[in-house]
Amino acid sequence: MPGLVLGLLAEDFSVCRLLPSEPVPLWAGSAVFSSVTRTADELSIICPAAQVPATIQAEKGWRLLKFTGPFDFGAVGVLASVTEPLARAGISLLAVSTFDTDYILVKAGRLDDALRTLEAAGHQVIRP
Hints:
By secondary structure, the chain is mainly β. The protein has a single domain, classed as VC0802-like (2-Layer Sandwich). Helix content is 15%, strand content 38%. The chain has helices spanning 80-88, 111-120; strands spanning 5-18, 35-38, 43-48, 57-67, 94-97, 102-107, 124-126. Strands 1, 2, 3, 4, 5, 6 and 7 form a seven-stranded mixed beta sheet that branches. The chain is globular and about 40 Å long. It starts with a strand and ends with a strand.
């Protein structure tokens, strides 16, 4: 996969866990980025940290990188071209895919390492 262009969003993000029976809260929406996933086990929400009430179970301190897309559904290796170098560098991530593109979240404390790793792998990162 040739080098990709990823855009770093300026905000800090949180990954939140609610009960699977709870309705999607109003604070979960964001024009910047939000992801809502419901399973039989949980309601998971990713959104800007500033929107998350203090009473919510949340893993804070994530930074979000958006792949410049769109990508065809038949494209192979797009996500792997980013996740593999990060895994080799010992950097954990969360991945989210949409109709048009992919996003990854890395912990803010590892962001500089992640950006250096991605650039060394031939990707371009656009910073805010």
